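Technical annex B. To support the medicinal chemistry partners, we prepared a structural model of the target in complex with zinc ion, based solely on the information shown next.
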Amino acid sequence: MDNDNSNNSLCYYCGREIADPNSAYKKALYKKIGWDTGSGFKKGEVSIGGIRYKVNEISVPRCKKCKKTQANGCWLIWLPPLLFSIAIIVLNFKDKNWIWC
Ligand SMILES: [Zn+2]
């Protein structure tokens, strides 16, 4: 993803406010690398149930206002980021080793 315009991109949710980097909606993706051999871990790698995963974080631009609104807990607001994430996976991660965690 392009980090250069992350500071002034518009909020994905309302499309009006400038997105606040600290308010971005973040979602971790885990990519299966192989079996956990117990050594040689690199930064950003975790072991879950004996299998080693590489952790990749995606972030959706969001403004402070929307973060506050979404913190109030309406489940419908999770639909856009979910669809957004699925679209990203379909477009960029055709590798079947990507899973949700
Ligand atoms: Zn917003």
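Notes passed to the chemistry partners:
Residues 79-92 form the longest helix (14 residues).
The two ends are 21 Å apart (CA to CA).
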